[in-house]
Structures are given as C-alpha cells and as structure tokens.
Design brief:
Number of helices: 18
Distance between the termini: 7 Å
Largest sheet: 8 strands, antiparallel
Radius of gyration: 21 Å
Mean pLDDT: 93
Strand order of the largest sheet: 1-23-2-12-13-3-4-9
Number of strands: 23
Helix content: 25-40%
Shape: globular
Strand content: 15-25%
Length: about 550
C-alpha cells in the first residue's frame, strides 16, 4: 500500500507524485484521517464526510460542528446522481423582526439571539441515508476517541485563541476547555462533547431534534443578557432541503455548485462566465491584467448577490435570470479590460419579481470549513460547514460550539435576505464539483472564509480549468477579490505587489490577511491529487 500524505505546510501532493485512487482533504489531519479510515472500511465518500465533520466539531470547534449549518453536494457514481442537501442554520419561529432591536451588532453576534436552528447533523443524516454504506454510529468513533483522548492544539486554533483571548476567556465554559493560566492550552480534551457525540451516534438527528442534546442547546441559547428565541419546536421542526444543484458550462466543463439560499454558488458561476468572456485564459496568471479582471468580476457578482439572493422557500429569487446567458453577456460587457468601473450596481436580471434594496454584507470573516472527498468507486462529496464567526455565538452546549448564523441576515427587513420566521439566511458558501465531458467528476473543491469563499473558489477554478494549474497551485496561490466590499490583495504575497499597477487602472486595493480554507481534489492520469489550504491546519490524505 502506497501512502500519499499532504500536510498544509507543503500545500499539496507534488505534481510528480503518484496519484491516489481515493482522497480526503479537510482543514485538520485528524478529520482527514477519520474520513480515510471510513473509506478503508468499505465506506463511501458520504460516510467519510460524516466522520470528518464529527472530528472537525472536536478539533476545529471555532469553525464548524454539530451546532452549525452546512451545504452538501454528493455524487453517487453508480446512479450518476448529484444530490444537493441544504442544512443552513434557520431563524426560529419567534425571531424578532429586527435582530439588533435594543442592542448593537457587536453584542448581538455573540449572544443567544444570533443562534440559528442548527442543521448540519440533519443534512448529513439525509445525505447519508441516500449515499452512505456504513452504519451511522460507526462514523462517530474517531471523533469520540479524539474528544476523550485529546489532541495537540493545532496552530490555527491557537492563533484564534490568542487573538481573541480576552473575549473567549471571559466565557467560563470556553475558558475551562481551551485556556490555562490565561494562555491557550497546548493539549485539548472535550469529554462533554464525547458524550454528545455518543448521543448523536446512537440517535442521529433525534438527539438534537427532541433529545437531550437539543434540550441542552435550548437552555444555553435562552441564557445570557441577550437570550435567543430557539425552542424545542424549532429543533424538531427543522428539515434539511434537497434541491437541484446549479450547473453550467464554464471553460469547457460542467461546473455544479450550491443553489440559493447560497449566493456563493450563483456568484461563482457568474464570475466564471464574466472571466471566460473577458479572455482571462489568455492572460498570464500573476499579471496585473488578470488581477484587474478578477477584481471587476468580483465586484459585479457582489452587487448581484446582495440584491437578488435569499431563501427561495420564502422569497422569489431570480436564479435563472441571474444565470441567463444574455444577461451574463451584458454584465460581462461592462468590464473594460484596461480600466476599473467607478461604481458597480446590481443588474436587472430577467424573471425577477421586483426590485429590492441591496443588503449590507453582515460579515467579512467567517470560520467556515470545507471537506472534499473522492472514494475508489468514483463517488465524490463537496461539503461546506460553518459556525459562521470564529466560535460562533460563543455559547457551548454539550461541549459543542453553537453557531451565530442569524448574523448572515441583512439588517434591512425588506431586503431579499431580511430576517423572517423559519427563514434560512443567504450564505457565500459554494461547495463545487466539476465534471468532464463524460460526466465524471474531475474537480472537487470548496472553501471557508466568509465572503472571500466566492473569490477563492472562482480563482481555483480559473487556475485549474483555464490555466492548467495543479491542486497545489490552486490552493496556495495569493488571493485576490472584492467580495467584502473592498478590493483586496493578499498581504505579504506577490499579489500585494500588483497594487501600483492596479491603482493606475483605477482600482483602490488594500493588502489584507485572507485566511480562506480552500480544499481541492483534482483528477490526474491514474487517479487523484489533492491539496489543503496552507493558510490553515489542513491535510489531504490518499492512497
């Protein structure tokens, strides 16, 4: 048996390495190992995804877990079925019309009022019922072991704990688990989460939707200076949604991604259309000319997603219009190859219901995580999972971090993405699978990083589809984008050196730390290569 192990410090399998027939890429080596172990035991890519998420809940508690939300794309090769399951954290039935009523966003975002009804476990269970093979309980064994036996605190988590030490150590439950004498612990254990994982292993989503773990979540959310409104009825009433994935031909391949309420999927497909029409494939990858096109395409898609994407169960999202070929050609025509647009406004897509006010982006940063998996039978999973901000609402229940997903709603109640009872907030998450001409997966990818997810996924697709780059280059390349509302070049990278040329073209870029968590698996002759984002603690493991 030949092992191919790639840690984040090396960013990917070298281009000359022998390919793997099955691979798992996540934001932590233990999660990748858990996924690979399930594949060895005869599990599918979906089995591996459940195991990986369970471990991430333990080892990456700031980013995702059993108390968050998720978007899943799962390809079942034998049936040639692409399953898209949405389990975003939803607003409770009794949600206030204005989340910030009587408070500020800074207070709201770390309170029970910001907690959405968690959907990750329900979504995983629904996808596992369709595309899993191993017993559900088996999939939680690695996570229970990690929570009980412990693990060294990974560097990215240490950085989060150090950066936010004052706020986090002020929460007794977080301080007890993650700090010692005011400093991040070097070794972590979470026996309370081990007990919670056992409940989920034994009872599935029912452990949350009516069970003891759900009761603990409701109690935790109802405490504090700004308690939330999540009830047991909200938990028991939550249902993951299956919907068709968004698919379109881009750069000669079929690109499939998440549908609304993901604004990320729409934006990725829009950007690729703009960049293809603008001829980015003919430009040097690290040139100012290419960076200019990336920034302009990002600005255009940001304007559209803020104006037109919300929860299609409650508002009329003009998804078809936003991806209409004639509409995209017209929007792409606004890009001047030599000059930045002074202002960018939303377009008027066909089949729209009515004009709505653009929504302010709630957050630029996110602690979201991504899992990319392929198994030996040709099945694939692209799975993005989130607590929203680092450590979510800074509330623990059963040792599990609870999300603050409701801060993803727009402040304006009449916006497409305004808050409403049981509504799912728009998200920039964009899990993606790319298919070749025979309809077989050739790329499995996605990212964390809030609004920056869109640019990270888009540029990785340009790198691989238009410029022929490998997974290593796609994950490690300097980030460029404008989805946060500011034109950004990744600090301390060659991208930042493009600032003077871009300024001469009318841009106003700034250097920024861009801690995306991009995972990429790419099919090569004989199998797969993979890479985990070097900005985090990830690993791509294969054999």
């Amino acid at each position: 048996m030949r092992w191919l192990i790639v840690l984040a410090l090396s960013a990917a399998l070298p281009a000359h390495a022998e390919p793997a027939r099955r691979m798992v890429a996540t934001a932590h080596p233990l999660a990748s190992q858990a996924g690979l172990d399930m594949l060895r035991r005869g599990g599918t890519a979906m089995d591996a995804a459940v195991a990986a998420q369970a471990v991430l809940s333990v080892v990456e508690p700031h980013a995702s877990g059993l108390g968050g939300g998720a978007l899943i794309l799962s390809w079942q090769a034998a049936r040639r079925e692409l399953l898209h399951v949405e389990g975003l954290s939803a607003a409770p039935a009794d949600v206030p019309r204005r989340l910030t009523e009587g408070t500020t966003l800074a207070v709201l975002e770390r309170s029970g009022r910001a907690v959405g009804v968690p959907g990750a476990v329900a979504a995983l269970a629904a996808a596992h019922a369709r595309h899993g093979a191993l017993p559900w309980a088996v999939l939680f064994e690695p996570a229970i072991r990690a929570a009980e036996q412990g693990f060294p605190t990974p560097p990215y988590l240490q950085a989060v704990l150090r950066t936010r030490a004052r706020a986090l150590s002020a929460v007794p439950e977080i301080e007890a688990l993650y700090f010692e004498n005011g400093q991040p612990r070097a070794f972590l254990r979470n026996p309370e989460q081990a007990a919670a994982l056992r409940l989920v292993a034994a009872h599935g989503p029912a452990a949350i939707q009516g069970g003891a773990l759900g009761q603990a979540m409701v109690r935790a959310v109802g405490q504090g200076a700004l308690p939330g409104h999540m009830s047991m009825a909200d938990l028991t009433g939550f249902e993951p949604r299956e919907r068709p994935a968004l698919c379109a031909e881009r750069f000669g391949r079929r690109v499939c991604t998440a549908a609304p309420p993901s604004s990320g999927g729409v934006a990725v497909l829009q950007q690729l259309a703009f960049l293809e029409q603008a001829g980015i494939a003919r430009l040097a990858p690290d040139s100012a000319a290419a960076a200019h096109l990336l920034l302009e395409a990002s600005r255009l898609t940001r304007a559209d997603r803020r104006a037109w994407v919300g929860d299609p169960a409650q508002v009329e999202v003009p998804t078809e219009g936003l991806l209409d070929a004639a509409y995209l050609r017209g929007r792409a025509g606004l890009i001047d190859p030599a000059r930045a647009q002074p202002e960018v406004a939303p377009g008027s897509p066909p089949r729209r219901h009515a004009a709505v006010p653009p929504a302010a982006d709630p957050m630029a940063e996110s602690a979201t995580s991504h899992v990319a998996i392929v198994d030996g039978a040709g099945n694939a999973v692209s799975f993005t999972t989130t607590n929203n901000l680092n450590f979510g609402a800074e509330i623990l229940a059963g040792g599990i971090t609870l999300n603050n997903g409701l801060t993803n709603f727009a402040a304006a109640t009449d916006a497409m993405n305004g808050v409403a009872p049981r509504r799912r907030p728009a998200t920039t998450m964009a899990p993606t699978i790319v298919f070749d001409g025979d309809g077989v997966p050739m790329l499995v990818l996605g990212a964390g990083g809030g609004a920056r997810i869109i640019d990270a996924v888009t540029v990785a697709l340009v790198e691989t589809l238009a410029w022929g780059a490998d997974a290593r280059r796609a994950t490690a390349r300097p980030r460029i984008g404008a989805q946060t509302g500011t034109e950004e070049l990744e600090a301390a990278t060659p991208a930042a050196a493009l600032a003077p040329e871009l300024a001469a073209m009318g841009h106003n870029p700034r250097a920024a730390a861009m801690n995306t968590g991009l995972q990429v698996l790419r099919r090569i002759p004989g199998g797969w290569e993979g890479a985990a984002d070097p900005r985090r603690d990830g690993a791509a493991l294969g054999e």
